[in-house]
Write a structure and sequence with these properties.
Blueprint: H1 2-5, H2 9-17, E1 25-26, E2 33-34, H3 37-51, H4 56-68
Antiparallel strand pairs: 1-2
């Protein structure tokens, strides 16, 4: 997962520890983490957010708003204003 996401192993463990990833299953014999498809998708999303410069607290807020869907619409940042284009 580290190679796929671009995150270091300690960063992935940290994201798991602080709850950005939730608990990751482990292989019983080796103890290696086994990422399910949904968790791998979440790691990929975190990678995109991080590469855009978003902080950990920003990523946490984004994931919270995303999970709450339309119920969180009033708390979301205002949409960007439209710029008029002159020709």
């Amino acid at each position: 997962m580290a190679r796929r996401s671009g995150f270091s192993e300690p960063t992935l463990r940290y994201y798991e520890k602080i709850g950005l990833l939730g608990a990751v299953a482990r292989d019983e014999s080796s103890g290696h983490r086994r990422y399910e498809a949904a968790t791998a998708d979440r790691v990929e999303a975190l990678s995109c957010l991080r590469s855009s410069g978003m902080t950990v607290s920003g990523m946490r807020r984004y994931l919270d708003l995303l999970a709450r869907g339309n119920a969180a619409a009033a708390e979301q940042w205002p949409p960007p204003t439209r710029r008029s284009v002159t020709r």
